[in-house]
Design a protein that fits this description.
Layout (H helix, E strand, L loop, with lengths): L2 H18 L11 H34 L5 H20 L19 H28 L7 H28 L4 H10 L3 H15 L4 H25 L4 H22 L1
Amino acid sequence: MNLNVWIGILIPFAGTTLGAAMVFFMRKEMNVKLQKMLLGFASGVMMAASVWSLLIPAIDMAEEKGGFSWMPPAVGFLLGMGFLLLLDTLTPHLHFTEEKPEGMPAHLKKTTMLVLAVTLHNIPEGMAVGVTFAGAMTGNTVMTLAGAFALSVGIAIQNFPEGAIISMPLQSQGLSKRRSFVYGALSGVVEPIAALLTILLTGLVVPLLPYLLSFAAGAMIYVVVEELIPEAQTGPHSNISTVGVAVGFVIMMILDVALG
């Protein structure tokens, strides 16, 4: 892999790290309206990325190969949803808006389960970045390096508020600002790891690119529908999160169309 690819897969992690650093500058608890706005924004970015950066290229690739062009995107999308459903069911984790943990019973600290919840979100994002860079590396005419960077930057933008959203609750749980920052940043480490593994896998099975692209899209949409939107719509001020969705969606769409 060349330097551009390494930079590309590390950009989202940088977004998470910068967001987690907000714990040093903000109050102990994040304003509820701001929190809902950021959750909505992250949802909008992920939905737009799933459509423009992943599903549409997957459909275009499938059409180039001929046959049932709808099949690879449909199968990959459902497999991605199923994969995240399985992870969500097996991995013990806790969302910051909930009191009861999800997944398999485990004797873990509350702070650990909070970090695991965000880590689950980051796996499909890392896969999405990895598969787009893999497509660009193979010389596929549908995938470009600029488009891969557009997705990477878009995910980094939505990782910034996610990093803040995880580090602030950790501090409110009694952790120091430094430890809250470290845990928040570490929740994003899985992204470059997932991206790297996906690139290595795609290099072996180039014909599966349409499936892998739509797989990543399905996994990201699962996170949006199952976690982000319900959390953003809980309680009052839900219209603020809806505005956030619109802003995030449009920004990611512009990034992909302009750079892709």
